[in-house]
């Protein structure tokens, strides 16, 4: 059976690696230098890094130079997100050598542009479906952006290669993933899904891994790693079979 990919997260705000609760600005816990965090996950055996520019996502500036430095330094695959909303920000993100980018707000606000870049860049483009219930949220998760399943159908028809699905109510809470949401999204699309939000234990990772046959490809792990609920080595071992 295909194993679940794990993507340890490094979210950068004001130059620091941070974790938020429910994605709320102001709820940051700081974990220091983002490059040190990324190198630690790489050293522990990660095959992927999920790298987010939170200031760019919130519209409070950006960490573009720092993010580019991290992305360029990694030997592993990098999924890059936050504030990638137009040709310039997309070109800068892709120029870091990241494996793929994850578009959020743009998929809600500028669908024609997203359709164009999906056509141009194929599987280097993923779309982040950040949801409360079944309502999508953009601009740092502060604004409603339409219905999850209508948007998913549109993006599917445009050839979107993969989705990163975040339950905002779970994100940063260590309360367990929303398995029902993940199963429902997998039932609605034949594209791979990366799960995000709520992972708190190795059992949570095993539960997400049980959805691999339905289309879940990977899981983003943030707070649980920083809070040392388990090590990345233990997590990789837990999903290796
Ligand atoms: O990851 C977070 O905790 C987060 C919190 C609040 C807003 C965004 C967050 N992360 C990711 O940012 C991109 C969306 O950025 P944009 O809308 O394209 O500018 C997306 O991957 C979110 O999951």
Structural notes for this entry:
It is a single chain. The chain has 241 residues and is an alpha/beta fold. The protein contains eleven helices and twelve strands. Strands 1-4-5-6-7-10-11-12 form an eight-stranded parallel beta barrel, surrounded by eight helices. The mean pLDDT is 97. It binds the ligand O=C(O)c1ccccc1N[C@@H]1O[C@H](COP(=O)(O)O)[C@@H](O)[C@H]1O. The ligand O=C(O)c1ccccc1N[C@@H]1O[C@H](COP(=O)(O)O)[C@@H](O)[C@H]1O binds next to helix 2, strand 6, helix 5 and strand 7.
Summarize the structure.
One of its GO terms (cellular component) is cytoplasm. With about 240 residues, the chain is of the alpha/beta class.
Pattern of helices and strands: EEEHEHHEHEHHEEEHEHEHEHH
Taking all residues together, what is the mean pLDDT?
A: 97
Task: State Rg.
Answer: 16 Å
Identify the overall geometry: globular
* Poorly predicted parts: none
Query: Beta-strand level of the residues, as a percent range?
Result: 25-35%
Class from helix and strand fractions: alpha/beta
The rounded distance between the terminal residues' Cα atoms is 8 Å
Strand arrangement, major sheet = 1-4-5-6-7-10-11-12
Number of continuous helical runs: 11
Main sheet characteristics: 8 strands, parallel, barrel
Fraction of helical residues: 25-40%
E-strand count:
12
Ligand inventory reads: the ligand O=C(O)c1ccccc1N[C@@H]1O[C@H](COP(=O)(O)O)[C@@H](O)[C@H]1O
């Amino acid at each position: 059976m295909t194993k679940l990919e794990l993507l340890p997260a490094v979210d950068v705000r004001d130059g620091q690696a941070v974790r938020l609760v429910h994605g709320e600005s102001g709820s940051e816990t700081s974990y220091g230098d983002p490059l040190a965090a990324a190198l630690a996950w790489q050293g522990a055996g990660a095959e992927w890094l999920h790298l987010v520019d939170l200031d760019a996502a919130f519209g409070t500036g950006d960490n573009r130079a720092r993010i580019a430095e991290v992305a360029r330094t990694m030997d592993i695959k990098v999924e890059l997100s936050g504030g990638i909303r137009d040709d310039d920000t997309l070109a800068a993100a892709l120029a870091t050598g990241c494996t793929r980018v994850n578009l959020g707000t743009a998929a809600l606000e500028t669908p024609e542009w997203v359709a164009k870049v999906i056509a141009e860049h194929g599987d280097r483009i993923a779309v982040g479906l950040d949801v409360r219930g079944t309502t999508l949220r953009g601009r740092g998760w502060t604004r409603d952006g339409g219905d999850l399943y209508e948007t998913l159908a549109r993006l599917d028809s445009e050839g979107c290669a993969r989705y990163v699905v975040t339950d905002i109510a779970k994100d940063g809470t260590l309360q367990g993933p929303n398995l029902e949401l993940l199963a429902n999204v997998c039932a609605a699309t034949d594209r791979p899904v990366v799960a995000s939000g709520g992972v708190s234990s190795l059992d949570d990772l095993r539960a997400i891994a049980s959805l691999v046959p339905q289309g879940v490809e990977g899981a983003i792990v943030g707070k649980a790693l920083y809070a040392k609920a388990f090590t990345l080595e233990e997590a990789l071992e837990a999903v290796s079979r």
